[in-house]
Amino acid sequence: MVYTVSAGYTLSKIALKFNVPLSTILNLNQIQRPDQLFINQIIQIPNVQEIPEDASFSLPTPASMLINRAKSVINS
Question: Within 13 A of 62's CA, how many CA atoms are on the CB side?
Fold first, then answer.
């Protein structure tokens, strides 16, 4: 299935909306920079039935880490 990104949506929100692990969406779409999502961008959303039972997933980076990283870049 494909999804067209709407205003206000993040990859995390899209993953929750479709009940699909974020890492699966990132891998399927070969997204290297999840922070660069654009309105009207088309992304592939897998059917949950297509995800292997033995698939492993990693946790997303906590927002506080991303904020601290961004602050260090801005202040450098």
Answer: 3
The CA distance from 24 to 22, in Å, is 5
**Where are the extended beta strands (E) located within 1-76?**
2-4, 42-44
Report in angstroms the alpha-carbon separations of 58 from 10, 50, 65.
18, 18, 16
How many H helices and E strands in the chain? 3, 2
Position 26 pLDDT exceeds 80: yes
Nearest CA to 26 out of 51, 1, 44, 38 is that of: 44
pTM value is 0.60
Q: How confident is the model at residue 13 (pLDDT cuts 50, 70, 90)?
A: very high
For residue 71, give the amino acid letter. Answer: K
